[in-house]
Each structure stands twice: as structure tokens, then as C-alpha cells.
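Re: [ENG-882] Designed sequences occasionally contain unexpected residues at chain ends

Forwarding the minimal case from QA. C-alpha cells:
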């Protein structure tokens, strides 16, 4: 029987993962290091095979009858899984929702200021909840609020799409803008400039190049 290895310096197994001597069942179904099903065998025998290859016996399906174990380099596998999870978290975009409030009778200066905030949020890839707040008799003309929202959406269309159209909710009209996905910049096609023809005097016959003679 191959000698047992020294102290285990691998990262600890997850709470539901049993490896090597922690696998207490008498028999298991073995998947070898090449992915081949070796069938049922005694756990001790499977562990000896793993040790002989300087690998680990890892329980991958404890609910099996018998449990399924696989021979692998557990430390390497665990590291690769952690790196994949890290990369997934790195590329996962967290979208927050910002809110900008308008009045239906907003003056041009305030409108431009608030539009600037909307543009800044969209450039940061945040969604923007745009709210028109009506007071008193202003609710008699909801179309004024809708016109402001649609004007804003048109002016920021290079950075945003309308996720939800203007909708009246109580005394507020709400529109949701979502940042557009990054699109590759279109390459400008080179257009050949036409060569200007030399002016021909009225009545003159254009000169024709003489044909080459052999």
C-alpha cells in the first residue's frame, strides 16, 4: 500500500464537501482522474488509487446510492472555482436607480440643470427615475408633464432608452430611463472625392488621347 501523505496543507473543504479520510461510507462509485466511471468499489480502495496518483478523493454526489466520488487535485480545483467566482463578481454590473424630480412649470434654467444630472447618472450606467410632481389644478393638464418627460427622453436618447413610458401614479407622473449598452463606434467610410473635370469652352471638342500603335 502506498504511504500516506504528510500534513494536509490544502485549503479547507466547503461545509458540504468531504474529501479523502473524511469520506466515512464503506463503498462509493468512483470517477477517475480522466472522467471515466470505474464503478462501485470500497472507499479505502478508491482512496489508495487517489493517493497513488498524488491526488484527492472528493465526494461530488453524496446523495447517490452509493455516493459518487471523483479523483482530482482538490486544491487546484478549489482555486479555479474561487477565481471563476471572483471574475464573475468583477464583471457583474451593479445598477442603481437615481431619481430626478421636475415640476410641470419648470423654468428653462432649472430644466437644463436637472437634465445635466440625468446625463451624469446615465454616463455612470445608473437608471434614472424621472418624476413630474403635480400640485392642485396642475393635474387637470397631465399632458404638460408628459411633454416634458418625452422631450427629456429625446434629448438624452444617445445615452438612454425608455424602460417605462410616462405613467400617472397619483399626483406624480413617472418615467424610467435605462442606460444604453456600450456600442462599438462606427468607422467612417472613406468616400472617394470626385475629380473635378476641366472646363470645356463652348463649341470646343474635348481632346482625345491618341491610340497607341503597335
Amino acid at each position: 500500500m502506498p504511504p500516506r501523505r504528510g500534513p494536509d496543507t490544502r485549503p479547507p473543504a466547503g461545509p458540504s464537501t468531504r474529501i479523502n479520510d473524511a469520506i466515512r461510507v464503506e463503498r462509493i462509485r468512483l470517477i477517475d482522474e480522466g472522467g471515466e466511471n470505474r464503478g462501485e468499489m470500497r472507499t479505502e480502495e478508491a482512496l489508495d488509487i487517489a493517493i497513488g496518483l498524488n491526488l484527492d478523493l472528493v465526494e461530488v454526489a453524496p446523495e447517490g446510492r452509493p455516493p459518487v466520488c471523483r479523483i482530482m487535485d482538490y486544491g487546484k480545483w478549489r482555486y479555479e472555482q474561487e477565481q471563476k467566482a471572483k471574475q464573475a463578481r468583477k464583471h457583474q454590473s451593479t445598477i442603481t436607480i437615481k431619481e430626478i424630480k421636475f415640476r410641470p412649470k419648470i423654468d428653462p434654467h432649472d430644466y437644463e440643470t436637472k437634465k445635466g444630472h440625468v446625463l451624469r447618472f446615465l454616463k455612470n450606467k445608473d437608471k434614472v427615475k424621472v418624476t413630474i410632481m403635480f400640485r392642485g389644478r396642475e393635474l387637470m393638464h397631465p399632458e404638460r408633464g408628459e411633454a416634458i418627460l418625452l422631450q427629456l427622453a429625446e434629448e438624452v436618447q444617445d445615452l438612454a432608452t425608455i424602460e417605462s413610458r410616462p405613467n400617472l401614479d397619483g399626483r406624480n407622473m413617472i418615467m424610467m430611463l435605462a442606460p444604453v449598452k456600450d456600442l462599438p463606434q462606427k468607422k467612417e467610410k472613406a468616400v472617394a472625392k470626385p475629380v473635378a473635370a476641366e472646363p470645356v469652352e463652348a463649341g470646343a471638342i474635348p481632346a482625345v488621347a491618341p491610340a497607341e500603335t503597335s
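QA comment: On inspection the terminal residues look reasonable. The first helix runs from residue 43 to 52. Proposing we downgrade this to a documentation issue.
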